[in-house]
Write a structure and sequence with these properties.
Elements: H1 5-15, E1 20-31, H2 34-41, E2 45-48, E3 66-69, H3 79-90, H4 99-102, E4 122-123, E5 126-127, H5 137-155, H6 167-180, H7 183-187
Parallel strand pairs: 1-2, 1-3
Antiparallel strand pairs: 4-5
Length: about 190
C-alpha cells in the first residue's frame, strides 16, 4: 500500500501554517540525531506524516520540508519514528525537564554520557566509585569527563572523530589508553 498524494495534500492544506515544518519519516532520510532534535524544538509547528507499509507516492515528497530516518532498518509505518522524534523533541522544550538535566546527556557534547550511580553505595560487591562520594566537585567533574570519554572510545569511537578535542580531553584520552595498555606496552 502506497499513501496517495490527494489526502496528504488536503490534510496539509488544512494544517499547514507559515511556521510549519512538515516531516516525513523515511529510511532514506537524514538520520535523526540530537542536533536536529534541538533544531526542531525551536520551530513553531511540526506536522509529521506517518505512512504505512510501502510508504508514499513520490509526489508527496515535494510537499514535505524534511525526510528523517531513525535508523538503518524498515518499520511497518511512520508512527514509531514519529513517537521517537516527538519524545526526543518534547524533552528539549522549556519547562519539560530541568535544563541542567540535558546539559551533559549523551550526544549533547558529542560524547556518550558518563556512568550513573545511586544508592546503595555497595550493591552485590559493586561499589560506587569513591570520587563520587568525596564531595570534591572538581574531581567529580574530571571523573565524569574521563568516563564519558572512556565510554565513547569503547562503544562509539567514531564520535570522537566528529568533534574537536580539548587539551584536557586529549590528556584524559592518553591516560585512558595508558590504563588499557598492558604492563609491557606501558614501559616501551
Amino acid at each position: 500500500m502506497v499513501l496517495r498524494p490527494e489526502p496528504v495534500a488536503a490534510a496539509l492544506a488544512v494544517l499547514r501554517r507559515p511556521q510549519s515544518t512538515v516531516i516525513l519519516p523515511d529510511p532514506g532520510g537524514e538520520v535523526f540525531a540530537q542536533p536536529r532534535a534541538h533544531d526542531l524544538a525551536e520551530r513553531g509547528h511540526l506536522i509529521i506524516i506517518c505512512p504505512r507499509y510501502e510508504g508514499v507516492d513520490q509526489r508527496i515528497r515535494s510537499l514535505v520540508d524534511l525526510e528523517l530516518s531513525i535508523g538503518d532498518y524498515v518499520l511497518s509505518g511512520g508512527e514509531i519514528p514519529a513517537l521517537v522524534m516527538v519524545d526526543t523533541i518534547l524533552r528539549l522544550l522549556p519547562g519539560a525537564i530541568d535544563a541542567e538535566s540535558t546539559a551533559e546527556e549523551s550526544f549533547t557534547t558529542g560524547l556518550l554520557e558518563y556512568p550513573q550511580y545511586t544508592r546503595p553505595p555497595d550493591f552485590d560487591g559493586l561499589a560506587v566509585p569513591p570520587v563520587l562520594t568525596s564531595g570534591h566537585h572538581e574531581a567529580v567533574r574530571k571523573w565524569r569527563l574521563k568516563e564519558a570519554l572512556r565510554r565513547t572510545m569503547t562503544r562509539r569511537p567514531e564520535m570522537l572523530g566528529q568533534r574537536a578535542t580539548t587539551k584536557e580531553e586529549a590528556k584524559l584520552i592518553a591516560e585512558i589508553r595508558g590504563e588499557e595498555a598492558g604492563p609491557d606496552e606501558r614501559t616501551e
